[in-house]
Design brief:
The chain is α+β, with helices and mostly antiparallel strands. The protein has 11 helices and 15 strands. It folds into 3 domains: 122 residues, Immunoglobulin-like (Sandwich); 74 residues, no CATH class; 133 residues, Glutaredoxin, CATH 3.40.30.10. The longest helix has 25 residues. It is elongated and about 90 Å long.
Length: 369
Amino acid sequence: MRKKSILMAALVMAVANLMSCTVVGQENKFTITGKASNFADGKKVYLIKSVESQEIPVVDSTVVRNHSFVLEGQVGTPYIAVVGIADSLMAQEVTVIELIVEPGNIQIEAWGDDKHHVATGTPLNNASMQFSQAVDSLFRSNPSVRPETLYPFVYPYIKRNVGNVLGIYLFERYEASMFDEMRLELANDLYTAHKEEKYADLIAKIQKKKERERQMAELAKAVQPGNPYKNISGESTDGNELSLESVIERKGNRYVLLEFWATWCGPCMKEVPYLKEAYTKFRGKGFEIYSMSIDQEKEKNKWVQTIQEKGMEWTNVLRTDAKNTTEAYGVQGIPANFLIDCSTGQIIATNLRGNALTMKLEELTGKEL
């Protein structure tokens, strides 16, 4: 198992007076033997238990001799740990190897080159090694691996190890970006196996999120093409309250694009040139944009500045308490837009991104514009 970050803080905060663990029974004994050409003689070796604590416990320590070292101790429940090799606890350069401490003889050796090391020799460390090799092979064959490919690949390894620390480690490493259905299933499995409250809390969080998404999906159905628009309002750049209804009913307007965006939203800002293109071409033919920003009150000046700098000459409003407003349109992410026919009050298209807006308005030109 390779560790991408060295976590120097863990070594610096470790206790200075190191004591070896006393072995009281052979059945729970572990031995960690490390040997590699880049393990320099005289370097200190620390076995540090990975725990969420301000004080990281040093389980054992020794010194490298003949490019090798031995650490020993006793373990009941297997746990994740790191072996740190350095001149001292205060050293800037540290070699870190992550492993699972469990009963048996664990061997650490170089893998591929002197920069990477792996732990093998016991069931969980062997399984971890197999996983690391499989992931490495996956990325070599497809460097641009996407989540929809990666997580189904990781899933069976977690599933097979839900009852042990490797399953916990892999789940907590990958779960943050997993699809909700997969996260929920594995979290349920882990809770059943370990009864830890953190998994019960995660299950509740995922279920709440899924219910929220279901509700928003229901709201979104009401604003699909063919349905009437819902009136909303916001504060204009001159400080007055301005409703969507007033723009739709404004004389001369035939089509209004309701656009949800924010200054901090990168994809939103990428849409501005396309909105400007459509507005320049069709503003004299009854087309208007009602652009609602969901920036916070503290970002109000930035909102005004962005409008000016980007030349966003259409109708702009700000709604700092936008939750109810975005919910009215089932908006779960921005940018999002809705094209409204002023003559009927109906939504006729949604999410016209890029050139799609200009193309849609060109299609309408032969009808009314």
